[in-house]
Amino acid sequence: MSQYLLEAGWTGDGKMIGITEPRRVAATSLANRVADEQNCVLGTVVGYSIRFDDCTGEDTKIKFMTEGILLREMMGDPLLTNYCILMLDEVHERTLLTDIVMGLLKKIIRKRRSLKVIVSSATVDAEQLRDFFNTNTSKDKPVADYVKAVVVTALKIHVHEEQGDILAFLTGMEEVDRAVDLLNEHAKLIIDGKQKILPLPMFGSLPSTEQLKVFWNAPKDTRKIIITTNIAETSITIPGVVYVIDSGFVKIRWFEVETHTDSLIVAPVSKASANQRAGRAGRVRSGKTYRLYTEDAFDKFVEATPPEMQRSDLAPAILQLKALGIDNVLRFNFPSPPPTKNLLCGLELLYPLGAIDNNGELTSPLGATMAEMPLDPVYAKCLIISGTMECSAEITIILAMLQVQNVFTIPGGGQAALKARVARRKFEAEEGDLITLLNVYTAYESQKVTSWCHQNFLNHKTLRRATEIRTQMCKMLKKLNIPLISCQRDTEKVLRCITAGLFPNTAYLHYAGVYRTVRGSRELDIHPNSCLYAVQQPQWLV
User: Fold this and answer.
1) Suppose 259 and one of 158, 383, 475, 520 were both cysteines; which one would form an S-S bond, judging by CB atoms 3.0 to 4.6 Å apart?
2) What value does the CA radius of gyration of the chain take, rounded to a whole number of Å?
3) What is the pTM of this model?
4) For residue 1, what are the CA distances in angstroms to 35, 89, 109, 345, 424?
């Protein structure tokens, strides 16, 4: 073991590897053997020290000694600064000096974390010794506010650890922004001459120019602290990351059968995700992962994140299976069988949409046409009937905008965030967010330049993608002989068409002042980013 450590370069800074033995004969015989294998004279690179016999020199890198010799060295050098690694051999004999040495080494490694201690034994209880040397006194106290804990941990790493960027995982944009704001406040307090910190957010709706900053090299004497969602778990690899902070939580999409809605819920990560996050550390050199949860909590995590088949709306899948001739979907052999109630919920949705009949069979032509469209059944129903409702031009725009994400760019904060909010108000409509998206696209059609999008805090790449999707939808309508007609700003026709397809998502204003879903009576709130958030509450919502 000592020779491997020597070859690995642990003694490159002039320090020694020390090995303690309970008996003098073991120390001398092992020193002779290692010296022979190293092809060196005993007392040069390899030496030993026992009572009344010191066979070491200035060039000694591997030193065998008895436990009593190590105790005497502690008297003159309490932190054992001459050693980089200490290996305690034959610990299972548990001599008096062995226990004293272990007790003192535990105190030393609290003060000098760079010292590595290896305990070697044939029969000793390894878990008992691991718990004895574990200096983490908070292992049984999981943190309450993991956002603050991420910030505190990042600052501790910055103060105590070597150079290297930090990557911290949180669940969503709000938590990322909060953590970045807290770190920016601390960054202002760092005095001149000390290493600075550069907090950076990373999430899906962040403008691409802001996202690219995490890949840039930090200025001189500055450490990057990147606060991210699970987008950095597998999708991207950020160079320079040495330390990872894992909050232990993630936002996942979950389908609620009672309300027939998809929700983003905060849930503990799976073991596979936790290990994937840990793998982000040390891509450039050996790294560390700080997990803000106990080992017992980790053992209770599920092995892997449940597949989407078990936590999503199955109506689109059922419609596709019906079109492929699978009539009895309840008995279909799935690799990961979904809950039966999810399958029944999908059938209950397809029936009022007119996609299946009383016998559960695919209707023609409506059901067959919906199955051909690469859209969710509720959106496909809107698109099919938009021709007869004389608003197909507007519906194609709205549905195309719903297929993309992050139409509005969201600056990190400050004056830019206020300007973005003011710019957004120019497109808002009292009829709701879908008409707002229609207004955005209509305005974009008359401009189609990047500078205009940047001025109005719109994502040009996203709008360009929406244009491409709408072009494909128009071709699909032509193929299905559905006329492309504009409602000529008669938004009531558009709202009626939307309601005909999205009626399962209807909610009403309860007398208690909150919204409740028609299905399941689940309490809902209007999102702060919605244009309806600050207006008088309407009685009904879709």
Assistant:
1) 520
2) 33
3) 0.60
4) 13, 11, 21, 62, 65
